[in-house]
Amino acid sequence: MNQLNPTILVIDDEAGILDTLKILLRNSGYQVETAQGGKAGLAAISTVAPDIVLTDIRMPQVTGLDVLESAREQDPETPVILMTAQATLQSAIQAVNQGAFYYIQKPFSNDDLIAICNRALEYRRLRSENKQLKSEIRRRERSVSVKPIGKSKPFLDVMKLAGQVAPTESTVLLQGASGTGKEVIARYIHELSQRSEGSFFSINCGALPESLLESELFGHLKGSFTGAVRDKQGLFAAARGGTFFLDEIGETTPATQVKLLRVLQEREVLPVGGTEPIPVDVRIIAATNRDLEEEIRRGSFRSDLFYRINVIAIHLPKLSERPEDIPLLVDASLQKIAASRDESPKMLAQETLEAIVSYDWPGNVRELENALEHAVVLAKEDELAVSALPKRITAGKSQQFVSDRPLDNPTLESVEQAYIMWVLQRESGNKTRAAEVLGIDPSTLYRKLSRFGDDSAD
Question: Where in the chain are all domains bearing CATH 3.40.50.300?
Answer without folding.
Answer: 145-317
